[in-house]
Amino acid sequence: MHFALTVPAVVDRLIQQALLQVLNPIFDPTFSPSSFGFRPGHRAQDAVLKAQEYIREGYAWTVDMDLAAFFDRVNHDMLMARVARKVKDKRVLRLIRAYLNAGVLENGVVVRNEEGTPQGGPLSPLLANILLDDFDRELTKRGHKFVRYADDCNVYVKSRRAGERVMASLTKYLEEGLKLKVNREKSAVDRPQKRKFLGFSFLYGEQAPIRLAEKSIERFKDRVRQITSRTRSMSLSERIRRLNTYMMGWVAYFRLAQMKQHCDRFDEWIRRRLRMCIWKQWKRIKTRYTKLRALGQPEWVVHMMANSRRGPWLMAKNLNQAMNKAYFEALGLRSLQERYLQLRGVS
After folding, report:
1. pLDDT per residue as tens digits for the range 286-313
2. 225-253 pLDDT per residue, tens
3. Which residues 6+ apart lie within 8 Å of 161 measured at CB?
């Protein structure tokens, strides 16, 4: 079995996009309203709000199902049988089959795919939804409250015991009925507050406020560390440009979460990391004297800091007053907290 992220050639991408434009109006209107992934007019945030709605209704346990390497395990025959239910043109069916079987070019050798939908092509998400539509219909038939985003599915129940029954029966259905593999290590029956869904989680309480999942915080900080790494040679303006691009996209995605305090702390931490990068660039004592004086620091402070042997991270804290929020705003640095409040409609 060969797992790969494929990048289709320009002509292949064009053909797949044309197929998508024809097939999407045929299949998408019949998909479950509880399916949110890769569908026009549906967003990850809509899925999270739906999950919150179920929790508020008293479905206080979640059956969190993780499909192992889903896109790489799709059975071609089962998928094509489902496509053929609504597509009767054999030329289109042959084209889709050829796309599935095309394989990938690796070191000049074509490696054929016996199963899976190659990730990276415009058509793959729709084909995945077509296969998992049977799963959605089975969940609906059983009367379950569920939310699915691509291969990420949560079923909401009222007790752990019910959740364990649902987990066992759905695992059997997926593995025997759709020939998929449930990752038992990552799947669990637990309180929604202890699980993550699309980067979000929930707080305890009747209203189940939405919060950031811990891993989302870790990934955010890891990315900021990469951009503000002292070992990466980069101008300050370029660092700020990259930070703004990443931060504004990040806060727009996670705006549903209760994270005003997180944003405030992130803003302070990011400014300190930038001050650390700046101090690292002031390698010579003479340069430090010049720069600190330009910042309007008292002469005794200039002398003390310029001759300090402390590391850049500690010195970044000492530069807090000289290089404050206004200083970085003048350089173009955006504020996570301010953008978050704007998105939430808070003045």
Report:
1. 999 999 999 999 999 999 999 999 999 9
2. 999 998 888 999 999 999 999 999 999 99
3. none
